[in-house]
Design brief:
Strand order of the largest sheet: 1-3-2-4-5-8-9
Number of helices: 12
Oligomer: single chain
CATH architecture of the largest domain: 3-Layer(aba) Sandwich
CATH class of the largest domain: Alpha Beta
Low-confidence stretches: 1-37
Mean pLDDT: 89
Structural class: alpha/beta
Length: 293
């Protein structure tokens, strides 16, 4: 466990955003956005019965990325909700895209399904959504698990991926193989290419498309790295799981993690990078179940 002493220098060093509006006193534009998306409920696949576990995927991902692990979790007496976040998977598309909105999407989802005391598991972007939701609605969360992301601000670093995706023209590229070749012109990592191709589907019998809302993700790319607002706290049990080969959570992040989550611990999975749940699924499952059971 980390100590709970909060140093103002932690915030000065890491934070890029102002003190939060914890009573939902959003700006008029934010309130308008939330009001107009309130009736739209996130798409999900629900597996099993028992304590609800809500799993939030990362940037460019979808709920299907977690199907294997989610199924295994459900066999241990949990009701697993594999959720598509807005502008991803089969959930609704909007021009607006930021963590305030995604946190409210999650609140609406929980209310819609009448869930209480959920276990939240979020990876990367999904981890940031889970963190913001937990500090905003702590009464809804029993335990929080964050996979390979920190509360700090991250500089935008998906520019090459976005360039590759925006180079795809589905009126020209008529097969998945042709789409793959366009991506290979920009991206060299095989795993990243296969990950992105999971989003390609047949929109009609003649035309392919991406499941994510590429236009919105491109325009709002800077939002993905946003830090958790200063002076926000979640005091219940929290677990950060990091990949030993990943730089998304570093030793320098630990004071900031402690400041926001005084009852947090960090577990490292060896021989794993940012996609630690895919690279070391057995160990990831062991760590997760050891924390929540």
């Amino acid at each position: 466990m980390f100590g709970i002493r909060v140093l103002s220098t932690c915030y000065q060093k890491y934070q890029k955003r102002s003190v939060p509006n914890t009573n939902y006193k959003y700006t008029k534009s934010k309130a308008y956005q939330i009001q107009n998306t309130k009736k739209m409920i996130l798409h999900s696949k629900i597996i099993g019965t028992g304590t609800p576990v809500l799993i939030l995927h990362g940037y460019f991902g979808m709920s299907d990325n977690w199907k294997t692990i989610g199924t295994q979790i459900s066999k241990q007496g949990f009701q697993v909700h594999l959720i598509d976040q807005r502008n991803h998977g089969r959930s609704f598309h909007t021009d607006e895209f930021d963590y305030d909105l995604m946190s409210e999407d999650l609140y609406n989802y929980i209310e819609h399904h009448n869930l209480e005391k959920v276990v939240l598991l979020g990876h990367s972007m999904g981890g940031k959504t889970a963190m913001l939701f937990s500090v905003t609605h702590p009464e809804k969360v029993a335990k929080l698990v964050v996979a390979d992301i920190s509360p700090r601000h991250y500089q935008p670093h998906h520019n090459l991926i976005l360039k590759a995706l925006n180079s795809v023209d589905f009126s020209v590229q008529k097969t998945r193989k042709e789409v793959e070749q366009v991506l290979r012109n920009y991206i060299k990592e095989e795993g990243v290419i296969m990950f992105l191709l999971k989003n390609v589907y047949w929109k009609t019998k003649e035309e392919l498309a991406f499941r994510f809302n590429l236009k919105s993700l491109t325009e709002n790319n800077s939002e993905v790295g946003a830090g958790l607002p200063s002076f926000t706290f979640f005091e219940k049990e929290t677990l950060f799981i990091k990949g030993a080969n990943s730089e998304y959570i570093t030793q320098e992040d630990e004071p900031l993690i402690s400041a926001h989550f005084p009852n947090a611990s960090v577990e490292t999975i060896e021989n794993a990078g940012h996609w630690l749940h895919a690279e070391q699924p057995k160990r990831f499952l062991e760590v997760f179940l050891g924390f929540v059971e």
